Amino acid sequence: MDAGEREHRRDRASGVVDELGRRGVVAVAITWVDHSGITRVKSVPVARLPWAAAEGLGSAEVFDAFLLDDSIVAGRHAGGPDGDLRLHPDLDRLVVLAGQPGWAWAPADRHAQTGERHPQDERGFARVMTERLAGRGFRVRAGFEVEWALGEQTDDFRPVTTAPAYGHARQVELSDYSAELLSALAEQRVDVLQFHPEYAPGQFELSTAPEEPVAAADTAVLVRETVRAVSARHGMRVSFSPKVVAGGVGNGGHLHTSLSRDGRPLLSGGSGRFGLAPEAEAFYAGVLRRLPALCAIGAPSVASYLRLVPSRWSGPFAAWGLENREAAMRLVRGRSVEVKCFDLTANPYLLLGAVLAAGEAGLAEGGGLPEPVVGNPADHPDAPRLPTSLGEAVAAFEADAALTAAMGREFAATVADVRRGEIALFEGVDEDEVARRTRWRH
Ligand code: GLU
Ligand code: MG
């Protein structure tokens, strides 16, 4: 970032300070998501926004080594006392928070002190991968499904409602809450596709319209923080954990993507199965092949593997199918490809960057998708399971040259270090305790 860019950012931010003041904003929360999937924050009073936009807020590099319990792993490239970086709020995504009066929010890009993108900046990684594909005419649009469970203000999980799964009764009981949430999201210009009570006790879900990858990840963060804020205002605690209680149905963070090239949709009207174009088959074959490795990014917690079991609709099989809800990859005919095995302990920026890198590798490798699975994959004796532990996923990730090269050595090694740190944290710990210690963290 050069002096001209700094001045430009300062001017732009100066131009919105008065408007923010008129709308009652006192401070701007500037967030990034760390490698363990936790959204971290530094804030500035509104008058300081021009300075923050131009100079960035100083921040330690040690955050790249944080684990979900706030302990710090001694990694190969992060975790020591040295190093600083700058958090630059992205003014294009500045939003007045409707669920948190007095606050605005902007996601941060993390720059090195010397001005260029920090090698471990997840948001920048998603942007770089988007641009790399755009250079060849490919455009990905993405959206997350966000699931959460509402509990009372206790450490154990006590659902705030016992009304039925998908039951209108549940929504009626939480009518004011639901309306306030949807209204806050609308005010924040989040385009909600649908909202509904989900299967597990106290669980809800909403999904958002397709966007550019970085915007989709921003939206995933904004949705979660809005759900958290509105839930708190209604005296409830919210869990986005993959396993709120051991044995139950968990929270997923399914990722929908679609692909086009030079303005031409590639999920419909093609010569392949179900209308897929050959480039779409190659792209998604690259993703499918790498799902075990991608689990280290998209199912990144020890608790993720309590969720990733058959018959919980979490897509624990490394297979694809047409509208098949037990396969990890579900083609929604003509519309999108959903990857179901991911959850909300994932860093959405890192996950999108990695999925794009996997698709790009698939394009380079060529070839199409294998046979789709029909019916319950568990009934097919040779149906491959995804990793059943975080350790297995990390090993697959480290062995994947395309993913680790796209991320860069330092970035990939630190993500692996963080995963190993969390594996060590839960060594010998039973499922109830894993669920308990993960439940309220993300
Ligand atoms: N809650 C399920 C999961 O953990 C997903 C249910 C569904 O939307 O199909 O992924
Ligand atoms: Mg769902």
How many structurally independent domains?
Answer: 2
Q: Provide the residue-averaged pLDDT.
A: 96
Task: Name the CATH homologous superfamily of the largest domain.
Answer: Glutamine synthetase/guanido kinase, catalytic domain
- CATH architectural label of the largest domain: 2-Layer Sandwich
Largest sheet: 9 strands, mixed
Distance between the termini: 32 Å
Question: Beta fraction of the residues?
Answer: 15-25%
Shape annotation: globular
Order of helices and strands: HEEHEEEEHEHHEEHEEEHHHEEEHHHHH
- Class per helix and strand makeup: alpha+beta
User: How many strand segments?
Assistant: 15
Which ligands accompany this protein? glutamic acid, magnesium ion
Explain this structure.
By secondary structure, this protein is α+β, with helices and mostly antiparallel strands. The protein folds into two domains: 3-119, Roll (Ubiquitin-like (UB roll)), CATH 3.10.20.70; 128-438, Glutamine synthetase/guanido kinase, catalytic domain (Creatine Kinase, Chain A, domain 2). The chain is built from 14 helices and 15 strands. The protein has helices spanning 3-22, 49-55, 122-134, 168-173, 175-187, 213-233, 278-289, 291-298, 304-307, 348-365, 390-398, 401-407, 409-425, 431-438; strands at residues 27-33, 39-45, 57-60, 84-89, 95-96, 103-112, 138-151, 192-197, 203-208, 237-239, 255-261, 264-265, 317-322, 327-332, 336-339. The longest helix has 21 residues, at 213-233. The radius of gyration is 21 Å and the shape is globular. The protein starts with a helix and ends with a helix. Bound molecules: glutamic acid and magnesium ion. The site of glutamic acid (GLU) has 12 residues, from loops. InterPro entries: Gln_synt_N_sf, Gln_synth/guanido_kin_cat_dom, Gln_synth_cat_dom.
